[in-house]
Amino acid sequence: MNRHYPIGLWFDLYAGADLTLPWPINVHFEDFPESKILRCISKDAVRSQFISSIKEADSLKHKGNVINSMQEKDHHQLWSGFQTG
């Protein structure tokens, strides 16, 4: 069974204490594993998935208090920061 978890959860589970940030992530653009990873069909779909993952992680860690206290402009700023690194 394939499971899709937020990247932060994977980081918390597998990152060692000596790991430096930012955590390196490799993105491959060939031989996409459609049977293992969901494909996002547009930039809006990627943004929606990103915000959903943030909400899920916040819910697990802070009972949703952080993301629910943010305004839509804060969500936009978070997304923009993610895009630009």
- Strand percentage lies at under 5%
Provide mean pLDDT, rounded. Answer: 79
Q: Which residues sit in consecutive blocks of at least 5 with pLDDT less than 50? A: none
Helix percentage range: 40-55%
Strand count, sense and closure of the main sheet?
none
Order of helices and strands: HHHH
Per CATH, the architecture is Orthogonal Bundle
What sort of overall outline do the alpha carbons produce when their principal axes are compared?
globular
* Structural classification: mainly alpha
CATH superfamily: Autophagy protein Apg5, helix rich domain
CATH C-level class is Mainly Alpha
How many discrete domains?
A: 1
**Radius of gyration, CA atoms, in whole angstroms:** 14 Å
Distance between the termini: 32 Å
**Number of continuous helical runs:** 4
Quaternary status? single chain
What is the CATH topology? Serum Albumin, Chain A, Domain 1
For the secondary structure, the number of strands is 0
Model description:
The protein is mainly alpha-helical and 85 residues long. The protein has a single domain, classed as Orthogonal Bundle (Serum Albumin, Chain A, Domain 1), CATH 1.10.246. It is 53% helix and 0% strand. The protein is built from four helices and no strands. The radius of gyration is 14 Å and the shape is globular. The mean pLDDT is 79.
Task: Summarize the entry for a quick read.
Helices cover 53% and strands 0% of the residues. With 85 residues, it is mainly alpha-helical.
